[in-house]
Design goal:
This protein has helices spanning 23-44, 165-170, 304-314, and strands spanning 48-52, 55-56, 63-66, 69-72, 78-81, 85-88, 101-108, 116-119, 127-131, 136-141, 153-155, 174-183, 186-187, 206-211, 220-221, 229-237, 248-254, 258-262, 268-272, 276-280, 286-294, 321-328. It is mainly beta. The chain has 2 domains: 47-187, no CATH class; 210-328, Sandwich (Immunoglobulin-like), CATH 2.60.40. The strands form 7 sheets. A 5-stranded antiparallel β-sheet has the order 11-10-7-12-13. Strands 15-16-21-20 form a 4-stranded antiparallel β-sheet. Strands 1-4-5 form a 3-stranded antiparallel β-sheet, with no helix packed on it. The protein is elongated, with a radius of gyration of 27 Å.
């Protein structure tokens, strides 16, 4: 959680009849109330959508509609949309291979100086008198690994660029509202809101499930293993769950158990393999899945260390993937 942003001691202003007030006096009062409200939001809420911000968009649509809503960023600032907004889908055809491109629709708090109202004073020069806190909406293009790039958010005006959207999303300065799959300047699928986060976390245990099927599994042969088994491990990324603390994981391997490979003499072997798996090196964003294949699946005269190396080299296990469930208490 970010540290409180109050930069001075707290005090309540007491007014009296006949007191002469300056603009700075009223601004100090407004600033104090604002800082206390942000401190409350930082302390009791997490960055996310508190209410509203319903987003609608169906397949073949070229526009999405965002309903009024209230959200809080990691600095405790309130992001309020007071009326429905229609936003154009990013005008892109496809990627270089002709596949859809994925975008996250994000919202952020406007910086001071954005959408200001200026007015001339009687004895002073023209200056800002109102700061209109209208939310800033952007389309953030995702990389093939579903991560926002370091830069390149497409703003509502289709030209604004924001530096470092990945960092801002991780720090809670940008909030995800929906994910879009875009092909030929239209939505290729209905919008998904599974990626958004609630500003009011639920009290019951949080669960999240995932798998590694979307990428080729990079199994690693453990060097320290028993002569009675083959020990493998696979690193599993669980950052999509955004666990706030270390969860409990349950995981198992999915894949064709009939495995074929060739040894150094070019002899072909086909075996039905299975084993015992368990999560280790557990963290909030990842864990290592260790798989032990016992000798019972091999002949007594076979060297399991050599067989393990041959399995890894032949990439016979590359289609085995891990399915997992995390429970955060």
């Amino acid at each position: 959680m970010p540290s409180p942003s109050i930069g001075r001691f707290t005090e309540r202003v007491q007014f009296f009849d006949g007191q002469r007030l300056f603009a700075s006096d009223l601004q100090d009062l407004e600033q104090f109330n604002r800082e206390m409200r942000q401190l409350h939001n930082q302390s009791l809420h997490q960055p996310g959508v508190a209410s509203g911000y319903a987003v609608s968009g169906n397949r073949e649509d070229r526009e999405v509609t965002i309903q009024p809503g209230y959200a809080i960023d990691s600095m405790g600032r309130e992001i309020v949309l007071t009326e429905a907004l229609v936003l154009q889908v990013p005008p892109v055809a496809s990627d270089a291979a002709g596949r859809p491109i994925y975008y996250d629709l994000v919202v952020s708090y406007p910086e001071d100086g954005v959408l200001t109202e200026n007015r001339a004073g009687v004895c002073v020069s023209r200056g800002a008198v109102r700061l209109r806190e209208a939310p800033v909406f952007c389309w953030v293009e995702l990389t093939p690994s579903d991560d926002p790039p370091g830069a390149g958010a497409l703003g509502a005006d289709r030209s604004a660029k924001l530096a470092g959207p990945k960092s801002q999303l991780e720090r809670g300065l940008m909030l995800r509202l929906a994910r879009a799959e875009v092909l030929n300047c239209k939505l290729n699928q209905p919008l998904s809101i599974a990626q958004r986060r609630n500003a009011r976390p639920v009290q019951q245990p949080f669960t999240f499930a995932g798998n590694t099927a979307d990428r080729e599994s990079q199994w690693v042969l453990l060097t320290e293993q028993s002569p009675e088994s083959i020990s493998l491990k696979l690193s599993v990324d669980t950052s999509d769950a955004r666990f706030r603390s270390k969860p409990r994981y349950v995981a198992h391997v999915i894949g064709e158990r009939r495995v074929t490979w060739k040894n150094a003499s070019n002899d072909t072997f086909t075996r039905v393999l299975d084993g015992f798996g368990r999560p280790e090196a557990i963290d909030a964003a990842s864990f290592e899945f260790h798989l032990v294949i016992p000798r019972m699946f091999f002949n007594d005269n076979e060297n399991l260390a050599d067989i393990g190396s041959q399995l890894i080299d032949s990439r016979s296990l590359s289609k085995w993937y891990v399915e997992w469930l995390g429970v955060e208490g």
